[in-house]
């Protein structure tokens, strides 16, 4: 029995390792290819690990036209979207977590329902309406668009964080005679700060990764975001600079991966938390 | 209760006891307190209504208009009644795209849910070091921006010296020397599926794995003592407990995959996109935006939004109930 159990454990481990290799491979291949000299990249027999790593692809990538424009635009769009969204979403999350009011349910339906809208279905109305207000080809148009899907998500997740704060703490402050605002600032804010950080990092990632609206709403190459820049890299030429493309990909993926590793644990269940409880 | 605020237990009672009893007139402070939740949600509601509600209203109007580039500049469309809808609904391409998108969605959801659940079960069987490695790989896949993942897929599958052709040939799966993965619609969409499933699995694994840890040990052991085989334990003990999680994950996956755009659009590449490989999101983009026929595109958008709305009813109802009770 024991030997059999050990043998089956070994079998599961072997399958697990194989899956590890398959799932991690694309990410490894991206990073590995970014450092490979052209000879290795163009050979028919792939080099699994280059012994002569080079940084030349990275310098090619960052010197390509509009790379820095893309990064700059992405950073502007992301930081403004996240900053505005966090303030507004936090207020609404407080309303949801701490008050019961008429229309509360309608608001929840709005928050959940909006997240279900397929983005492709919104291209045309947003393009037409934003064009009317001269917000096409302007970062401000993209920022307000992004807010419409960052806000509902953030309200929902922040509400979860606020519910996790024990009521007694808040009540203790109120008995001590502080006003609701006072108790809020001194007790609630420090407690919810980790939640705010986690939510804003998640909002950062969603916004940084966004492609379809940036592509449709920003026509000028100098106005485009980093993901759109990357999508044009492959372009139409058959002679693709694979090393440069992988270096560019790595540069755009790294900030996201780093941030993601920081908050992954905190948010993973935000979407389904309600389901488990209900 | 006149106040719309939740009486916060003891604090409320203490407050009432300490304060001298008198009828409080209709003061500004009280009005403000009653209005507080509305003031708090106002900015979010305002942004959503202005940037989403108004365009959606406009979308409904557009779908009954002839609205092209000329009308876009003039800011004025001409009404054409139901012409856009009948043009779309009488277009065989629309129906082909719809069927293709449904098949594509079902394939993606079944694969992602199936593989995801199997990996979650596997995680409970492996030694801790393998579990850490596998989880790390999943988190990496999860964190990859879709646009970046597409580029990596293009590089791995290119016919000249892509690593996929090399590996398949070396492993004697067949002769894949310079095999062109972008030659047929089926092959193109299969590549898109592999990319989407790879990106979707981590969320499913993590959620199901967390759910598995909630299955009571005693139940599983009791079933095993009664002589139930592993498959029966899974079907009769684990699945019923995980049902709400499966329901949520499946409906979310259906909604996301039905509206998918970025991965197939960039992977297949605009130069190769045609009526034989379009999915709903791409069809809509090509018909409405690329051909600048915004009226017809609006009609397709409305149809797509209606389909997704129907698909999301189950999910939204469940989430609203969960959000409403925990206050």
Summarize the structure.
Chain A is an all-alpha fold and 278 residues long. Chain A has helices at residues 2-34, 38-42, 56-63, 67-98, 104-116, 123-132, 139-163, 167-175, 180-209, 212-217, 226-234, 242-267, 273-277.
Summarize the topology.
The complex is a heterodimer of chains A (278) and B (327).
Chain A: H1 2-34, H2 38-42, H3 56-63, H4 67-98, H5 104-116, H6 123-132, H7 139-163, H8 167-175, H9 180-209, H10 212-217, H11 226-234, H12 242-267, H13 273-277
Chain B: H1 9-18, H2 28-62, E1 65-66, H3 69-74, E2 78-79, H4 83-89, H5 92-123, H6 128-143, H7 146-157, H8 163-170, H9 185-212, H10 217-225, H11 230-258, H12 262-268, H13 280-290, H14 294-325
Antiparallel strand pairs in B: 1-2
Helix pairs in contact in B: 4-14, 5-9, 5-11, 6-9, 7-12, 9-11, 9-12, 10-11, 11-14, 13-14
Shape type of chain A: globular
Mean pLDDT over the full residue set of chain A: 85
Looking at this structure, what is the CATH superfamily of chain B? MetI-like
Strand content of chain B: under 5%
Residues in helices of chain A, as a percent range: over 70%
Q: End-to-end span of chain A in angstroms?
A: 40 Å
Biggest sheet features of chain B = 2 strands, antiparallel
Give helix and strand order of chain B, one letter per element, not per position: HHEHEHHHHHHHHHHH
The H/E string of chain A reads HHHHHHHHHHHHH
Total tally of structural domains of chain B: 1
Can you tell me the CATH architecture of chain B? Orthogonal Bundle
Assigned CATH class of chain B: Mainly Alpha
Radius of gyration of chain A in whole Å, from Cα?
Answer: 24 Å
Oligomeric status: heterodimer
Q: Report the CATH architecture of chain A.
A: Orthogonal Bundle
For this structure, the CATH topology of chain A is MetI-like fold
Unreliable spans of chain B are 1-17
């Amino acid at each position: 029995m024991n030997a059999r159990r050990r043998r089956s454990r070994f079998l599961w481990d072997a399958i697990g390792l194989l899956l590890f290799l398959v799932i991690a491979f694309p990410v490894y291949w991206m990073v590995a290819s970014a450092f490979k000299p052209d000879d290795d990249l163009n050979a028919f027999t792939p080099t699994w690990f280059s012994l002569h790593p080079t940084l030349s692809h990275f310098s090619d990538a960052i010197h390509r036209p509009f790379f820095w424009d893309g990064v700059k635009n992405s950073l502007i769009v992301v930081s403004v979207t996240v900053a505005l969204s966090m303030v507004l979403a936090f207020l609404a999350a407080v309303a949801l977590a701490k008050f019961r009011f008429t229309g509360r349910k309608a608001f929840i339906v709005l928050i959940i329902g909006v997240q279900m809208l397929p983005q492709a279905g919104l291209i045309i109305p947003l393009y037409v309406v934003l064009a009317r207000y001269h917000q096409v080809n302007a970062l401000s148009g993209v920022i307000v668009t992004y807010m419409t899907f960052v806000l509902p998500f953030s309200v929902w997740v922040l509400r979860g964080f606020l519910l996790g704060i024990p009521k007694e703490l808040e009540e203790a402050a109120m008995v001590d005679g502080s006003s609701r605002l006072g108790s809020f600032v001194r007790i609630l804010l420090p407690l919810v700060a980790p939640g705010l950080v986690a939510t804003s990092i998640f909002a950062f990632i969603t916004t940084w990764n966004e492609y379809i609206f940036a592509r449709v709403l920003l026509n000028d190459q100098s106005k485009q975001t980093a993901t759109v820049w990357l999508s044009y890299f492959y372009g139409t030429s058959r002679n693709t600079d694979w090393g440069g493309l992988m270096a560019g990909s790595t540069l755009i993926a790294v900030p996201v991966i780093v941030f993601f590793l920081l908050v992954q644990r905190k948010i993973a269940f935000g979407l389904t938390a309600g389901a488990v409880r209900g | 209760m006149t106040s719309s605020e939740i009486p916060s237990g003891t604090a409320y009672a203490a407050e009432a006891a300490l304060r001298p009893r008198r009828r409080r007139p209709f003061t500004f402070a009280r009005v403000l307190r009653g209005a507080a939740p509305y003031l708090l949600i106002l900015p979010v509601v305002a942004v959503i209504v202005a940037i989403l509600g108004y365009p959606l209203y406009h979308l409904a109007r557009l779908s009954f208009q002839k609205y092209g580039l000329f009308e876009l500049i003039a800011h004025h469309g001409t009404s054409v009644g139901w012409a856009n809808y009948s043009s779309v609904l009488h277009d065989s391409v629309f129906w082909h795209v719809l069927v293709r998108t449904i098949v594509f969605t079902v394939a993606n959801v079944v694969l992602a849910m199936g593989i995801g659940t199997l990996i979650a079960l596997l995680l409970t069987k492996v030694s801790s070091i393998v579990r850490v490695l596998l989880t790390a790989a999943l988190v990496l896949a999860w964190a990859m921006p879709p646009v970046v993942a597409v580029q990596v897929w293009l590089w791995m599958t290119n016919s000249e010296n892509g690593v996929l052709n090399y590996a398949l040939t070396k492993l004697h799966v067949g002769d894949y020397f310079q095999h062109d993965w972008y030659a047929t619609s089926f092959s193109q969409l299969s590549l898109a599926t592999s990319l989407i499933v790879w990106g979707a699995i981590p969320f499913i694994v993590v959620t199901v794995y967390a759910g598995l840890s909630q299955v009571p040990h005693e139940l599983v052991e009791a079933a095993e003592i009664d002589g139930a085989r592993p498959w029966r334990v899974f079907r009769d003990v684990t699945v019923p407990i995980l049902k709400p999680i499966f329901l949520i994950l499946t409906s979310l996956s259906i909604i996301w995959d039905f509206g998918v755009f970025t991965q197939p659009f960039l992977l297949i590449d605009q130069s190769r996109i045609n009526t034989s490989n379009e999915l709903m999101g791409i069809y809509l983009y090509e018909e409405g935006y690329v051909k600048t026929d915004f009226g017809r595109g609006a009609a397709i958008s409305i149809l797509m939004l209606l389909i997704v709305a129907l698909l999301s009813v189950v999910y939204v109802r469940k989430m609203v109930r969960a959000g409403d009770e925990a206050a």
